[in-house]
Structure formats: structure tokens, C-alpha cells
Amino acid sequence: MSSKSILSGLKISILGAGNMGQALTRGLVEKSVYPQNISIYDIDSKKMAQLKKELSVKIAKTSRHCVSLADIVILAVKPQILPEAIAEVASSLGKETLILSIAAGVPISKIEEYLSVRGGAGVGGKKPMAIIRVMPNMPALVGAGMSAYSLGKHASAKDRKIAEAILAALGEYVQVPEKMIDLVTAISGSGPAYFFLLTEKMIEAAYEMGMKVDVAKKLVYQTAFGSGKILAQSDEDPETLIARVASKGGTTEAALKVFQRKGFGKIIQDAVKAAHRRSIELREGK
């Protein structure tokens, strides 16, 4: 990363060394963020030790110590322990600290509430804290993630640029209004499982018709990879791409007719709607 990077010299603290916390740490180091500018804290000391050994990042003895000198704090803990995590660090956060939260289902207003109750920034005349909420997805683990982020009311244009520089370490990103995060969750957050299900059923079909599993997997996985690459790089919409594959009277058309007859399109739409409803329910504590 060049010296002109907006992240140059900034101290980044990551609370939580689970899958996404690890992905962020690795991505930032691979983007040439100086490892000693990254501090990690997790209750699992083995995870911290592994990251220190692999990436030479700093590990903290306590969450308070982890955030005390940070310019940016990334909340990568599970949503159910977020209140406790914030309670432990709120009084140690600097007044200029930027908070990025990837805790699924926890709105910015709730994070502000946790900070307020626990005496964090914004209390007693302190400057309100800049908070940015992020919804990443599983492909972030291999640097091919899709993250959506929403700005809190106190986040500045500079904060947005910092967030985008961090999210670039996971893959692609897009800004959305926070009211869209539940739908993002249903589309890209849960979305990888939809594609995994399709590939699983294609492999099962091939096996049932006599193909060895390892051969079927190679065919299906590479087809999925190549198709995704075309979608990402092409200016054509999916309908046009489908038409390019499906010759009249051919094999693809025969398969597509079955999809249409069985209501495949409606099944996908209903599934996304169900995921969206459940995301709202989780946000509301149901």
C-alpha cells in the first residue's frame, strides 16, 4: 500500500478473532497495513497466538488495552455478546475513535445506546462517536467478499473513506441506507448458501446418473467459479447471458423449462423474502 493510503499510520483494533475477524486481519496485512498497527483481542488466546505467529500483529491482554490507543475499533464479536463487549471498552475509547461493527442484526442506534449506558463517547458533553455498520459475507474469508455498509449520523466523509479502505481488504463493497441492511443480509449475507445448495444438488444429480463424485465436484465447482466470473465482469444482464447459453431446442432450454414448470423463480424469491423476514425478527429480538 502506498504512503498516501488513508490507513497509513492509523492504529486499528479488532475485537474478536473469529472467522470474520481473522479475515479482516489477514486482508489488512496483505494490503500492506503495517502489522504492528493492528491490535487483536479475543477471549480465545489460541486464536490470538496463531494470528501473532502468522501475521506479526499485536495481541492485547484485555479488550480495554486493545482499544485504548486505537483510531479505529472493529467490533467483530457475536451479536449476543456485543453489549458486554461494549461495556468493557466504552470508557477506554478515544473521542475521535471510529467504530466499525460487523455484528449481524445490531442497528447503529442500539450500539449508540450501549455506549451511552456505559459512559462511552457522546456522554457528559463528549463528542458523539462515529459508527459505521457493516454486513460482510462468507467469501470475505478468501478475499472475495461482498460487504454493504451504512453510515451513522456522526460519521464523516473521511470516516466513509477509511471504512471503504478497510472493506477493500475483504473484497468488494457498497454503501446502502441502514434500512436496507436486512435485505442485504437476505441477498448477499445468506446468498452463498443458496449457491452452495444449487451446486450440491447438481453434484447429487450427476452421481445418481453414474458419475464419480470427485469428477462431478470438479465440473460443478469450476462451472460455478467461471459463471460467477462472467457475471462479475460482463456488462450483460443475467437474462442475456442465459439466452447466450440456451440454444433453441437444446439441452439448456430443456433444463430451463423444468425450472420454469417447477416454479424455480418463485422458490428463490420466496426464500429471499423468508430470510429478509427472519433478519427483521432477529433485529427486533424475536
Structure description:
The structure is a single chain. Helix 2 links the parallel strand 2 (38-41) and strand 3 (58-59). This protein folds into 2 domains: 12-181, Rossmann fold (3-Layer(aba) Sandwich), CATH 3.40.50.720; 191-283, ProC C-terminal domain-like fold. It has 12 helices and 8 strands. With 286 residues, the chain is α/β, with parallel strands linked by helices.
Query: What is the β-strand count?
Result: 8
> What is the CATH homologous superfamily assignment of the largest domain?
NAD(P)-binding Rossmann-like Domain
Radius of gyration: 22 Å
Strand content: 5-15%
Mean pLDDT: 93
Question: Could you name the CATH topology of the largest domain?
Answer: Rossmann fold
| Number of discrete domains | 2
Which helices and strands occur, and which strands form pairs?
Elements: E1 12-15, H1 19-30, E2 38-41, H2 45-55, E3 58-59, H3 63-67, E4 72-75, H4 82-89, E5 98-101, H5 108-117, E6 130-135, E7 145-151, H6 157-167, E8 171-175, H7 181-189, H8 191-208, H9 213-233, H10 238-245, H11 251-261, H12 264-283
Parallel strand pairs: 1-2, 1-4, 2-3, 4-5, 5-6, 7-8
Antiparallel strand pairs: 6-7
Helix pairs in contact: 4-5, 7-12, 8-9
